[in-house]
Design brief:
The chain is globular. The chain has 16 helices and 19 strands. The termini are far apart. With 576 residues, the protein is α/β, with parallel strands linked by helices.
């Protein structure tokens, strides 16, 4: 059903690489009367935050599961004048719309909606309710990739690295091309059935790229972004924590993108109205982990490290904490890491040590040795890895080889706090892992939103385990498009995101330990907005797959927004 598009356009890509051509794009701009459909004040259902759900240290029943969180354009128009990219927001394309004020839902039949004001009840975090579209003028071609009948979305599948795939496949977390395409088709069918797209249908196509997952090759990836722009998608979905420069290339071309895990907030706020992501941005992540550390751990001994942290550092409980931060060496991540460093320095006795690495698996072992040596030399007792999910595989192994057993303070970033990824890390290290987790409380995979989506599309069995991640992105894309209303372009998508009620709207979690607060709002273009407190236990059984090795939670999985962490520190002390 979904052709490998790169094969069809290989001659154009070759030309782009040879000549370094640049597509001139003039993004369109919606008129003043465009309507955005925002959530509104819908009450979330109450939940049982009881001892029955509590996986605290004294609970022998197992631990909580975690999983990826669901959340969350005007595209450019080709210009043949050879002048290069135009300024986003120029070349307006006025379209007839329904009128009304931003944030005002369409009046009409809402019998399909749930009692708490959501579009459907297939899973908790469906988008806010809008009335059924009964026909009329939806504006037609309101943007590139949009007609009166369809909305074109490209799912960008970068060229996978075999070494990375081999690591992930240990926990069934790699996706084949067939699995990718089958799940894209299932997601397309689900969204078209249950979301409101005002007479249009989503058309999701998987684009198999030559942009390497690792080692990085920015020129190739930028050239490929320009080739993708020739296909005139309304939106590109690319769920990776990589390549801020390539996301900026899409931005210059006037194409909405969803992706770029944990980039600093300026990579979203300064690129309106084209940039969004599912996961909490790096700036909020920095504030969250710094607040956790400063309220619970600062100026105290390292009580949760190994019995001997390192012969040159000292023993557990006898050495004052000193934080070390590991992060990729690009500005999108360094900004957040430096913010964490500054905030912890302000509350602690010692300035954190900051070390970085290139996201290049071919140099992973050499870089891991250098990083761990720097942390030991800096007498770091507490390591914060604000990094991708593969980096700890090498760094935890190297730390054990060097006899170094620090505390591992989770930052909530990189999906390190997902049960199946936690099992990939060296177990003698990871028993010292704890801290904020952005991910939601998950039951068995068969009950996940990805599995619900799969079954609702009429497919037997279950989707791939790794399909949780693309579903989070498809869901955000479909939800933002619904919330934007019939006059679909980057302006109305942006307006919908900015009117996304962060308190009473979609994803309200007060009283529910199993639901992530997903909200955007003024200055916030990433969906996940709160965290729970977790610790790793090698013997706790995960409810995701029934296997040992999982993250336990405290206080029935209570979730915290910024400013809500307290000073209580109840993480169980490791045995070794």
């Amino acid at each position: 059903m979904r052709k490998p598009l790169l094969r069809l356009y290989a001659p154009f890509l070759a030309l782009a690489l040879a000549q370094a051509t640049f597509i001139a794009v003039a993004p369109s701009k919606g008129p003043a009367q465009d309507v955005a459909f925002a959530p509104g004040d819908y009450a979330a259902p109450s939940g049982d935050d009881t001892a029955a759900n509590d996986q605290s240290p004294n609970d022998a029943t197992g631990t909580d599961p975690d999983g990826t969180q669901d959340p969350g354009g005007i595209n450019g128009q080709d210009s043949d004048d050879g002048t290069g990219p135009s300024t986003p927001g120029t070349n307006p394309r006025p379209r007839q719309t329904t009128g009304g004020d931003p944030g005002t839902p369409i009046a009409g039949d809402t019998s399909h909606c749930t009692a708490n004001g959501r579009q459907h009840g297939k899973y908790y975090q469906s988008p806010p309710c809008v009335a059924k579209w009964t026909g009329g003028d939806n504006g037609g071609e309101t943007a590139d990739g949009v007609t009166d009948k369809s909305i074109k979305i490209l799912f960008y599948r970068e060229k996978k690295n075999e070494a990375v795939a081999a690591i992930l496949q240990q926990e069934g977390l790699a996706r084949s091309n067939q699995e990718e395409e089958e799940f894209a088709a299932a997601s397309e069918a689900f969204l078209n059935k249950h979301h409101e797209f005002y007479g249009r249908k989503l058309d999701i196509e998987v684009f198999y790229g030559e942009c390497p997952e690792t080692p990085p090759n920015v020129p190739v990836c930028k050239a490929e972004a320009r080739e993708m722009a020739k296909l005139k998608p309304f939106m590109v979905v690319w769920p990776v924590p990589l390549y801020p420069d390539v996301f900026d290339e899409f931005y210059k071309l006037g194409i909405i993108t969803i992706g770029g895990w944990h980039f600093a907030d300026r990579y979203f706020t300064q690129r309106q109205p084209y940039r969004y992501d599912v996961f909490m941005d790096g700036t909020q992540t920095a504030d969250m982990v710094a607040e956790y550390y400063c309220k619970k751990m600062a100026r105290k001994p390292a009580t949760h490290a190994g019995r001997v942290i390192h012969p040159t550092i000292g023993s557990r409980g006898q050495v004052p904490r000193r934080v070390g931060i590991i992060t990729p060496e690009n500005p999108a991540f360094l900004d957040a890491a430096k913010r964490t460093q500054a905030k912890i320095k302000a509350c602690d006795a010692q300035e954190p040590v900051l070390v970085s690495y290139e996201s290049n698996i071919e140099r992973s072992q050499t870089q891991a040795s250098a990083n761990i040596s720097a942390l030991i030399d800096g007498k770091v007792t507490t390591v914060v890895c604000m990094c991708d999910p593969i980096a700890p595989v090498f760094r935890t192994t190297t730390a054990t080889q060097q006899g170094y057993f620090p505390e591992h303070l989770l930052s909530g970033s990189g999906l390190l706090d997902y049960d199946k990824l936690g099992r990939l890390y060296e177990p003698r290290q990871w028993e010292h892992a704890f801290g904020p987790s952005h991910l939601q409380y998950y039951g068995p995979f068969a009950q996940s939103e990805a599995a619900i989506t799969w079954r609702e599309s009429g497919r037997p069995g279950l989707p791939c385990q790794a399909c949780l991640l693309p579903w989070a992105y498809y869901n955000l894309a479909g939800s933002l498009i619904q919330m934007a209303g019939p006059n679909l372009n980057a302006t109305t998508v942006n307006r919908a995101a900015q009117n996304w009620d962060p308190v009473g709207g979609w994803g309200q979690t007060k009283g529910r330990s199993d639901v992530v607060l997903t909200a955007m709002g003024p200055g916030d273009f990433t969906a996940v907005s709160d965290a729970k407190e977790v610790f790793w236990t090698a013997t706790g059984v995960s409810r995701i797959d029934g296997r040992p090795g999982s993250y336990g939670t405290l206080r029935s999985g209570r979730r915290y927004m910024l400013g809500e962490w307290d000073s209580t520190f109840e993480i169980p002390v490791p045995t070794n």
